[in-house]
Amino acid sequence: MSTEIVPKGPVFNYSEGTSNSKANLYFYQFNMPGVNSCLLVGIDGKYKGCIGYPGYAKVSVDPGNKKVSFTPNAPIKISNLDFSYDFEAGQDYFFVYQPVSEKSADDVEIKTQYNMILDISYGWYLVDKEQAIVELQHLRAWHKAI
């Protein structure tokens, strides 16, 4: 797996309705001070993508309740934040990782945690599709991370 931090994949391009039998999950972030690798996205214990800083990952999953985890792509892999969510087939979900202080009034908090090193709370938020598409438009996917 790559330990570079700069995504080298394609720039985000949204195409709606790619599958009626799966849910499409988009995870993105803008910056994480002090991080020296991409962030692995796990679904039910299996790595499905990697998010650079800044960057995004798209993962398609079967519908149902899934455990989503995030783990730095480092020699010792310790999941640093995870949550469970019930996904519906044919739906798109947009999650952003950001400081709690930067969330908008419309963002739905999924899970947050305090970062002692940075002295700030970060969290995953479910965001509105229109907002997410604007925020994602200049972000790149990871390339050959998994």
Description of the structure:
The chain is mostly beta strands and 146 residues long. The longest helix is centred in the C-terminal third of the chain and has 8 residues. It is globular. It has a domain of 83 residues: Immunoglobulin-like (Sandwich), CATH 2.60.40. It starts with 22 loop residues before the first strand and ends in a 10-residue tail after the last helix. 5% of the residues lie in helices and 45% in strands.
Q: Helical amount among residues, as a percent range? A: under 10%
What's the total count of β strands? 9
User: Assembly type of the shown chains?
Assistant: single chain
Across the major sheet, the strand order is 4-1-7-9-8
Number of helices: 1
Radius of gyration equals 14 Å
CATH class of one domain: Mainly Beta
CATH architecture of one domain: Sandwich
Beta-strand residue fraction: 35-45%
Structural class category: mainly beta
Distance between the termini: 6 Å
Q: Main sheet, how many strands, which sense, barrel?
A: 5 strands, mixed
* CATH-derived topology of one domain: Immunoglobulin-like
In short:
The protein has 146 residues and is mainly beta.
Strand-helix topology:
Elements lengths: L22 E7 L9 E5 L2 E6 L3 E7 L2 E9 L8 E7 L4 E8 L8 E8 L4 E8 L1 H8 L10
Parallel strand pairs: 1-7
Antiparallel strand pairs: 1-4, 2-3, 2-5, 5-6, 7-9, 8-9
Q: What descriptors fit this protein?
A:
146 residues; mainly beta; Immunoglobulin-like; five-stranded mixed sheet; four-stranded antiparallel sheet; 45% strand; globular
